[in-house]
Every structure is written in structure tokens, then in C-alpha cells.
Amino acid sequence: MATRVVTLGIDLGTTSVKAALVEAVPRDPSGFVVLASCARATRAEAAAQSAAAGHQGQEQDVSRIIQALN
Fold first, then answer.
1. Which residues of the chain have pLDDT under 50?
2. Can you give the residue ranges of every domain in the chain?
3. What is the SS3 assignment for 48?
4. Half-sphere exposure (Cβ direction) of 20: Cα atoms closer than 13 Å
5. Is the four-CA dihedral 28, 32, 34, 39 of positive or negative sign?
6. What is the pTM of this model?
7. How far is residue 47's CA from residue 49's CA, in Å, rounded to a whole number?
């Protein structure tokens, strides 16, 4: 039985959470095939709470990112 090589990529960002499952396929021109992918908005941007960030500083609301994963 042939071994399948699959990779899960996850991007936890300020504006969205993205995931992709790809399989290595040497015969494909790109070398891989996307088996599944998903993206969800996080709306995690929040005004900076620290004075060091200045008036244009931005922070992330981690709880919103975690909610997007559920």
C-alpha cells in the first residue's frame, strides 16, 4: 500500500483563520493537490491598550480568534 503524504497548514491571523489540507502528488505540475480548505473571519482587531503602541497601535483579541476556530 502506498504511503500518502499530507500536510495541514494553519494561518491564525488578525482578520481571518485559514486552514488547508494538501497532499504531495509528484506527478502534478505544482507537486501537491489541495484536499480541503476553509477560511473564517475573526474580527480580532482591537485598539491597543498599551501607551507604547501609540495612537495607531493595533492588538489582537485572542478570544475572537479562538471563537473562529469553533
1. none
2. 6-50+57-69
3. coil
4. 8
5. negative
6. 0.65
7. 6
